[in-house]
Specification:
The complex is a heterodimer of chains A (121) and B (109). Chain A is mostly beta strands and 121 residues long. Chain A is built from no helices and 11 strands. By secondary structure, chain B is mostly beta strands. The chains are: A mainly beta (121), B mainly beta (109).
């Protein structure tokens, strides 16, 4: 069974940094592109970033502040978040592409439970 | 691409049919349109991809249709567990970003 488990969410002050992790199991991690999607309190879904084999992509709202990476030997994806702002407050979900081959731009067929990030002084 | 979902809230009774709309600001390549269901406190769940293909384990009461800029999610014979928020999403890499609609809340009347 495919599973994704996020961790690393926390309360952080504006301007601070945080590193999220997403541990994957139940599928061949290296064969799939992975993404981060966030949801602010009471709001809809917002794509944050995606990673293929090596290529990375970011939403304009986080470009230059967030860095996505992956370690296929550990079946884990990461999101390094710097210069955090109040508007980054959200639940951060990791999501797996539905089609193998690291195509990056596919639907998401598996989601984690999410990890909460709160940016506040 | 901007995705606009309507209505914002849909109030129906169990057993009725729900019709949810997702309209794109420009044509979506190869019908790269997906639908997700999200219940309170839970992660989204994939329902439909490629505009009309049901994901694994999704009952046939859920169906997707449409092409170009206009897409529809239909839920026949609503069950109590179907009341949730539904999102559409465009993928496919043109443009190089994932876009979600703002969601439609399906509530029990």
């Amino acid at each position: 069974e495919m599973q994704l488990l996020e961790s690393g969410g926390n309360l952080v002050q504006p301007g601070g940094s945080l590193r999220l992790s997403c541990a994957a199991s139940g599928f061949t991690f290296s064969s799939y592109s992975m993404s981060w999607v966030r949801q602010a309190p009471g709001k809809g879904l917002e794509w944050v970033s995606s990673i293929g084999n090596r290529e990375t992509f970011y939403a304009d709202s986080v470009k230059g502040r967030f860095t996505i990476s992956r370690d296929n030997s550990k079946n884990t994806m990461y999101l390094q978040m710097n210069s955090l702002r109040a508007e980054d407050t959200a639940i951060y979900y990791c999501a797996k592409d539905g089609v193998s081959g690291n195509r990056v731009w596919d639907y998401f067929d598996c989601w984690g439970l999410g990890t909460p990030v709160t940016v506040s002084s | 691409i901007v995705l606009t979902q309507s209505p914002g809230t849909l109030s129906l009774s169990p057993g009725e049919r729900a019709t949810l709309s997702c309209r794109a600001s420009q044509s979506i390549t190869s019908n790269y349109l997906a639908w997700y269901q999200q219940k309170p406190g839970q992660a989204p769940r994939l329902l439909i991809y490629g505009a009309s293909s049901r994901a694994t384990g999704i009952p046939d009461t859920f169906s997707g249709s449409g092409s170009g800029t206009d897409f529809t999610l239909t839920i026949n014979r609503l069950e109590p567990e179907d009341f949730a928020v539904y999102y559409c999403q465009q993928y496919g890499g043109s443009p190089q970003m994932h876009t979600f609609g703002q969601g439609t809340e399906l509530e029990i009347k």
